[in-house]
Amino acid sequence: MIELKVNKKLPEFELDVDLQIANSGISALFGPSGSGKTTLLNCIAGFSECEGSIAFSGTPWLDSLRQINLPPHKRPVGTVFQDTRLFAHLSVRGNLEYAIKRHPDATLSLKDVSEQLNLNTLLERPIRGLSGGEQQRVAIARALLSHAELLLLDEPFAALDHQAKEDLIPYIHRINSEFDQPVIMVSHILEEVIQLADDVVAMQNGRVIDQGPTRQVIAAAADNGLAPRTESGSMLRATYRSFDDEYQLARLSLEGFPLRLPGIRPLQPEADVRLLIRAKDVSLAVSAPQNLSVQNVLRGTINEIRVAPDTPFAEVIVQIGRQQLRARVTRMAVDDLGLEITQQVFALIKSVSFDH
Predict the structure, then answer these.
(1) Who's near 138: CB < 8 A, 6+ residues apart?
(2) Of the N and C termini of the chain, which has fewer Cβ atoms inside 10 Å?
(3) Residue ranges with strand state E in 112-226
């Protein structure tokens, strides 16, 4: 467990948090720019002075009352910044061997890390000749070789294009699972958090306003002011089945219902896929629809209807198997369709609406 009771006064706000983060899996510090995410990350790493206490698996790294404050090089933390901060005059191998020389007691080997991050063919190449995504993989590998028991990622995708981001995500999952390496990442992008995080700490103005499993925090993001109401949505998990080469659509299964999505490359069968479905992209029908261009129809039961009295809108929470889907419709539609709790409905989602 990572125990944090941290206070730091800044010109823009005061960072004041009291929380615990599991030292396993991938956790995200999520919130708008200026909410204190990177400041908190720097406090954990020891790069930023703060008051309070920080303990990792019971070992104190900071305790103001006991005058304990381990410097960064004595905290078993590997930090990856947005700009990677690699040594441009060294090759990939040179950057990784530098980390090994500084931390000869590291449990991971260059061979292990290079294989898992697919760096074997890059080892002799200069840093300047690498793409942004390749540089991030080298930076992660260097952090792992620095005797890190905790990996900190500060906006790891900020400088990457969409394709490079999609290429890097599986590697972060891999190091977490293969090396049992706990990860804390900073992000203000919903899609990044959904793709990677098991748990989320939502921050605003230097305070923690929500914490819990990713699905739970994302569902409440609009209610907590972390996302515009129009971006309210649901995180759902589906299973990859196959790829339709003719129509360039991936075929997935969500609680037994078929889905067809563009933009997903062929994956291993039965691979887990996380989806963000925005409430505004979901339509409802009270009878089974026919002859529609909409490819994805999910049958479920209404759990809750949230009416916003001073607006034209309402949110309908639909239970689909073990998962919940939000639909944003008008209050008039609720009345016209006679929607009520426990009623069976059909949720219609255009294939182009999915974020994955």
Answers:
(1) 84, 86, 92, 95, 96, 117, 119, 122, 127, 130
(2) N
(3) 150-154, 183-187, 199-204, 207-213
For 244, the 3-state DSSP assignment is strand
CA atoms within 13 A on the CB side of 138: 31
The DSSP element (H or E) to which 306 belongs, if any, is strand 296-307
- Kindly report, residue by residue over 304-344, the tens digit of the pLDDT: 999 988 889 999 999 999 999 999 999 999 999 999 999 99
- 173 close to 117: Cβ distance less than 8 angstroms: no
Model confidence, pTM: 0.84
C-alpha dist (Å) from residue 351 to 16, 73, 91, 242:
42, 49, 44, 16
What is the phi/psi pair of residue 292, to 5°? Answer: -120, 155
Write 11-15 long-range contacts (CB < 8 A, 24+). Answer: 13/205, 13/206, 14/206, 15/39, 15/40, 15/43, 15/50, 15/206
Orientation angle between helical segments 132-144 and 162-178, nearest 10 degrees: 20
162 CB-near residues (< 8 Å, 6+ apart): none
Cβ of 4: how many Cβ atoms within 10 Å? Answer: 22
- Closest CA relative to residue 70, chosen from 15, 149, 156: 149
Which tokens belong to 19? Answer: 């929380």
